[in-house]
């Protein structure tokens, strides 16, 4: 049996940083994200009696470093007595570079693994399975603007706005395509144990979530911009005050931030956000996208520009 799934990464506007249950990989706080339709990961699973172990190929290259997490995910969905699998992954954007590649990869893997077993689609179950491996992957199980809530001993996802209700564009300035120096999981663990701001970060998340939900409900761009930038900078403040300090930014990252602030001063509806990496994501209205692209492309150190509208939930197919 063979199954294929395609999923999109997401970027959090109201971030999660840290875990309340490391064993179950449960996030420390609720979060709110945009699913990015222009970026994707395609994941194919081939089950075979001929294999002696799982194999992982990413963008045409054998990848041993990520195989253990992929195998762990397959065990979770399919059981440890499953057949071995050849997993072929293709991604159209840099991986492990602060562009949430794990969110699209593990959401696609979970959808494909359930498809290969011919299981009935269950978005909340799939989100729980994906979130068990990658905290952000759960949000990629829905399209548009998505909320992730901590519920008792699990998580729940909810679509707050579909792709047509409030179209938004995301302009991504790639400032470094290399793999980041420390993974998000390791950095979160360091932050939770050493940053003096970590407890305040947890305590002040609910007001940001409430503000963002209201902004989405009212389609209030200015309100969403203000709370998203504030929440982003709070998260990075926790990183910066971690021991040792976790700094993903580079000079181009900072210059992009200044350029976006200048655009805001001139009346452009745009705001920035950054995840655990050096890439800047500028969120804007579709009609302003061209101007944002032009300005960010002028900045020294910006290697390339990617653009995306809001994306849909994952898709899958199977064959014998």
Summarize the structure.
This protein is an alpha+beta fold.
Describe the protein.
This protein has helices spanning 67-78, 101-116, 123-133, 184-194, 198-203, 205-218, 221-240, 251-265, 289-297, and strands at residues 2-7, 10-14, 19-21, 26-27, 31-35, 41-48, 55-58, 61-62, 84-91, 145-151, 154-161, 169-174, 270-273, 280-284, 304-309, 315-319. It is of the alpha+beta class and 320 residues long. The protein folds into two domains: 2-164, Ribosomal Protein S5, domain 2 (2-Layer Sandwich); 169-309, Alpha-Beta Plaits. The strands form four sheets. It has a six-stranded mixed beta sheet. A four-stranded antiparallel beta sheet has the order 2-5-10-11, sandwiched between helices. Strand 13 (270-273) and strand 14 form a beta hairpin. Helix 6 (205-218) packs antiparallel against helix 7. It is globular, with a radius of gyration of 19 Å. It starts with a strand and ends with a strand. The model has no long low-confidence stretch (mean pLDDT 94).
């Amino acid at each position: 049996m063979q199954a294929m799934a395609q999923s999109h990464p997401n970027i959090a506007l109201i971030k999660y940083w840290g875990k309340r249950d490391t064993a179950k990989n449960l996030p420390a706080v609720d979060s709110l994200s945009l699913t990015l339709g222009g970026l994707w990961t395609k994941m194919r699973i081939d089950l075979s009696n001929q294999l002696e172990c799982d194999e992982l190929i990413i963008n045409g290259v054998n990848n041993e470093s990520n195989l253990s997490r992929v195998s762990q995910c397959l065990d979770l969905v399919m059981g440890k007595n499953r057949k071995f699998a050849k997993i072929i992954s293709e991604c159209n954007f840099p991986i492990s570079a602060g562009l949430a590649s794990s969110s699209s990869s593990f959401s696609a893997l979970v959808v494909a693994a359930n498809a290969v077993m011919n299981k009935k689609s269950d978005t909340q179950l799939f989100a729980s399975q994906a979130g068990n491996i990658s905290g952000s992957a759960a949000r990629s199980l829905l399209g548009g603007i998505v909320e992730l809530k901590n519920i008792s001993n699990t998580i729940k996802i909810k679509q707050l706005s579909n792709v047509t209700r409030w179209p938004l564009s995301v302009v991504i300035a790639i400032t470094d395509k290399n793999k980041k120096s420390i993974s998000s999981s390791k950095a979160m663990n360091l932050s939770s144990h050493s940053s003096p701001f970590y407890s305040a970060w947890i305590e002040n998340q609910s007001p940001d979530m409430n503000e963002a939900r209201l902004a989405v409900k009212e389609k209030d761009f200015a309100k969403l911009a203000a709370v998203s930038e504030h929440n982003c900078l709070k998260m990075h403040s926790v990183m910066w005050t971690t021991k040792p300090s976790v700094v993903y930014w580079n000079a181009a990252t900072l210059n992009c931030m200044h350029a976006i602030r200048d655009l805001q001063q001139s009346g452009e509806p745009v705001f920035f956000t950054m995840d655990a990496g050096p890439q800047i994501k500028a969120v804007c209205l579709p009609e302003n996208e061209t101007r944002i692209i032009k300005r960010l492309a002028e900045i020294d150190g910006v290697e390339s520009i990617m653009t995306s509208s809001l994306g849909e939930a994952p898709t899958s197919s199977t064959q014998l």
